[in-house]
From TrEMBL:
Active site residues per record: D32 (nucleophile), D34 (proton donor)
InterPro entries reported in the protein's UniProt record: 5'(3')-deoxyribonucleotidase (IPR010708), 5_3-deoxyribonucleotidase-like (IPR052419), HAD-like_sf (IPR036412), HAD_sf (IPR023214)
Provenance organism: Marasmius oreades (fairy-ring Marasmius)
Protein's name in the database: Uncharacterized protein
GO biological process, one term: deoxyribonucleotide catabolic process
MF (Gene Ontology): 5'-nucleotidase activity
Pfam families: NT5C
Amino acid sequence: MPEHLNAEPELLLKLLSHTSPPGSTGPVIAIDLDDVLSQTNREICEWHNEVYGTKMELSDFYYFYYWKNPYWGNLQETFSKVKDFYATQRIYDAQPVAGAREGVQALRDMGFRLIIVTARSRDVQEDSWKWVDKWFHGLFDSVVCTGQFTDADTNSREVVTKLSKAEVCDGLNAILLIDDSSENALQVSTASPPIRRTPVLLFGDYEWNSRLTSAADAIDTRFRLRVVRSFGRRRD
């Protein structure tokens, strides 16, 4: 591992000690934000139907990567749509996942220190914390965004890092990650030394976490063309 990555987990912990005085001295549990706490995909589904006149349903999200699913188009079209969605601020209208508030409260009551680890970028980190504080007030210490690493404002509770979720969980000494992505679960739970493996609870009965895929094997074509290439069968 490059030397700068060896140092970053320690720096991450140092930043967290400034931005987020621990609400608990107990073990750390890292928790994903989208579709574990926030019904993000449901909100973006409703937005897509309103804007493009589609009949997308949550069950159409077969894969973690949007461009592999119906209605989204190719890779470039998908990125453009997601950018437009974030520009509407509707992601902050998303409702919490049913039972999430009660589950998080139970973990906090048991003495665990709870930190959100999300793939969201620096552009939305502040508003993401506002959403968390609205629906889960006083339950989380910090939000860590796995985007480009920057120094955090010492008065904020958001930290941005370019580390992977596996590296962040290792740096936090987390005893568990709760995530809805099979891809993230596999990466974190099978990490190679010197990164410590972190146990993962795969959350939710979602289509996208019942099958594995990766960005590397993406075919830059529309979903319907990939179906035709698979002799009319959906690529499960």
